[in-house]
Amino acid sequence: MTDQHDAIPDIDPFALFAEWFAQAQDSEPNDPNAMALATAKPDGRPSLRMVLLKGYDAAGFVFYTNAESRKGREIAANPCAALLFHWKSLRRQIRIEGLLEEVSAEEADAYFASRGRASQLGSAASDQSRPLDDRQTYLNRVDALERELAGAPVPRPPHWTGFRLAPASMEFWQDRAARLHERRQFRQAADGSWTSTLLYP
Ligand SMILES: Cc1cc2nc3c(=O)[nH]c(=O)nc-3n(C[C@H](O)[C@H](O)[C@H](O)COP(=O)(O)O)c2cc1C
Questions:
Q1: Which residue out of 31, 45, 52 has the highest number of ligand 1 atoms within 8 Å of its CB and is therefore the one to mutate?
Q2: Residue 36 sits in which domain range?
Q3: Is the CB of 49 under 6 A from ligand 1?
Q4: Per residue in 146-155, pLDDT tens?
Q5: At 103, which CATH number?
Q6: Which protein residue's CA is at the shortest distance from atom 14 of ligand 1?
Q7: 51 in Cβ contact with 150 (< 8 Å)
Q8: Residues in the chain with pLDDT < 70?
């Protein structure tokens, strides 16, 4: 059996991510920036949820959240994390592993300021991941905060912030005919350069 071409080129992994992400933005029905974020509990058990990618460059992949949430507490204890994109429309997967670091206060301020007021109020009024007796309690907190602010800008709560995952490895998976799928794994060397290898699917 022979093959016509490699679907996953051996190029800079950030350029490849940008190419695939742009295609996902064109083809996914919603939230092409949705990604699963895996952290670890103190006992080593995995912990997983979706978040939205809000920026990326060679320094890493950024999402925003509440640092006092379950994920925030897990990250504070152990910054090792993994991200996963799955774009059904493209039959593609990207796995990214590395260390998380909180973004600067300036970065978090700028992103918080770019959000709609309703989202700002909703996140400022949420004790994310803590027990809630009744949904109405949360809605009342949103209303109370809006009244208290009397039209003033919503300040960013100090615990509402972003995290950047600096990747040590990135793996691209492409569906191919007859389940002869293709995987290319990129790893960062100590000098910062990236090398890649194909993996058996
Ligand atoms: C598509 C999607 C995107 C989400 N994006 C975010 C996000 O960007 N930030 C966030 O804090 N939670 C986001 N959530 C909610 C999280 O999945 C999760 O419920 C919440 O952050 C609490 O997680 P934790 O208890 O593990 O901290 C998203 C959920 C979905 C389904």
A1: 52
A2: 13-115+158-199
A3: yes
A4: 999 999 999 9
A5: 2.30.110.10
A6: 51
A7: no
A8: 3-5
